[in-house]
Design goal:
By secondary structure, this protein is an alpha/beta fold. Helix content is 38%, strand content 18%. The strands form four sheets. It has a seven-stranded mixed sheet with strand order 4-12-11-10-7-5-6, with helices on both faces. A four-stranded mixed sheet has the order 1-2-3-15. It has a four-stranded antiparallel sheet with strand order 13-14-17-16. It starts with 9 loop residues before the first helix and ends with a helix.
């Protein structure tokens, strides 16, 4: 059957796609900036950003031009060869961060898989063969490979697949005493998100992160920052760790790195990287010229003082609108987050209706996310205009009034 003969509707999803998603009932077909249109021509304000991916909005002209130009030069060579876009991107990432070395992959899960493997490989080969324990946190999320989903602190994602990778311990987030109770000389790494995304947009406290750094130094463990969601300007710095003088040993980033084109990276220091050798890890597609050329263009745009300062201004616009909305409808218990990763926690009487809030928001022309079981998540483009924010919030006001019956 040819493409033209196929009736491409939302119903087709239920027939041909593995039933592991429950997508919205409309099908987006076109986007520009922070606006999206579906098959029926209905317009939406995008507060979801593809789960913090489209940091420069949809079809940013520079990214489109970059992809077009690279598509006529070189698509893929594998890692049997290197390529110019990968080398340029790696140089820009190391110059902008603590890191000396970069590993490119295709998704946040792959970057985290590489990070966790590196942490164990480094520890067992340079310190002790018994130094394998990984400390992670309840409600964390690090990806969907079996290793990363086990390190993530949400059993609902890791149960049911047989025996899990061993020597991984979970403790409460932002509880330094809980970490002190389990860390020992067998610990190779502590893995933490500066802001837990799927865990409800929950920021780590400065004291907690500083304490983790000190414990890692004391026990010769590596501090791994998962910045898959917080990286690439999302919090108002290129990476969230740069808000504080607390530097990780390994950092992962993905989502917004390619502005919507799949690419991820693991960053680390020369000392840690030199434990690896050819063949200890790898990927076929990672660092391909298409992805790296787009990511290079994205980092050139994002790593700019004016843009990063604008993230904080947009944070204030959104939070002010949410507070005004809450003053009218009393549906949130708190609004938290940093930069353009914002979570609004529903009051107990509404927490079980989060899907309804998101569905009705879509009916009123707003694309919205959840985070955890009771938090509405906002992760729009870093360039979203004040007009788009105001229109989106006006639409949300109507949507929420409908949900609460006012």
């Amino acid at each position: 059957m040819s493409t033209t003969e196929t009736n491409v509707t939302r119903e087709l999803f239920d027939k041909v796609i593995l039933p592991i998603y429950a997508p919205a009932q409309f099908v987006p077909v076109r986007g520009k900036g922070s606006r999206v249109w579906d098959q029926e021509g209905k317009e939406y304000i995008d507060f979801a950003g593809g789960i913090a991916v489209t940091a420069l909005g949809h079809c940013h002209p520079v990214l489109v031009e970059t992809l077009h130009k690279q598509s006529e030069k070189l698509w893929h060579v594998s890692n049997i060869f290197t390529n110019e876009p990968a080398l340029r991107l790696a140089k820009k990432l190391t110059e902008a961060t603590f890191a000396d070395r970069v590993f490119f992959a295709n998704s946040g899960a792959e970057a985290n898989e590489a990070a966790f493997k590196l942490a164990r490989y480094y520890a067992t080969n340079t310190i002790s063969p018994y130094k394998t324990k990984i400390i992670a946190f309840h409600h964390a999320f690090h990806g969907r490979t079996f290793f990363t989903v086990t390190v993530g602190g949400q059993p609902k994602y890791s149960d049911g697949f047989g025996p899990k990778p061993a020597d991984i311990i979970h403790v409460p987030f932002n509880d330094l005493d809980a970490v002190k109770a389990v860390i020992d000389d067998h610990t190779c790494a502590i893995v933490v998100e500066p802001i837990q995304g799927e865990g409800g947009v929950m920021p780590a406290t400065e004291a907690f992160l500083r304490g983790l750094r000190e414990l890692c130094d004391e026990y010769q463990a590596l501090l791994v920052y998962d910045e898959v969601q917080t990286g690439m300007g999302r919090t108002g710095k290129l990476f969230a760790y740069q808000h504080l003088d607390i530097v990780p040993d390994i950092l992962t980033t993905a989502k917004a790195l390619g502005g919507g084109f799949p690419i991820s990276a693991m960053l680390t220091t020369e000392t840690i990287a030199k434990a690896m050798k050819p063949g200890t890890h790898g990927t076929t597609y990672g660092g391909n010229p298409l992805a790296c050329s787009v990511a290079e263009a994205a980092i050139d745009i994002i790593n700019n003082d004016q843009l990063l300062q604008g993230v904080e201004q947009r944070h204030q616009w959104i939070v002010q609108k949410l507070e005004a909305l809450n003053a009218r409808h009393h549906i949130f218990t708190c609004i938290r987050g940093k930069g353009l990763l914002i979570g609004a926690q529903l009051a107990p009487e509404y927490s079980h209706r989060i899907r309804e809030f998101i569905q009705v928001a879509a009916e009123h022309g707003v694309m919205l996310l959840s985070a955890g079981v009771d938090v509405l998540r906002f992760a729009p483009s870093l360039l979203i205009s004040q007009d788009d924010i105001e229109q989106g919030m006006d639409n949300l006001q109507q949507a929420f009034a409908q949900v609460v019956g006012e």
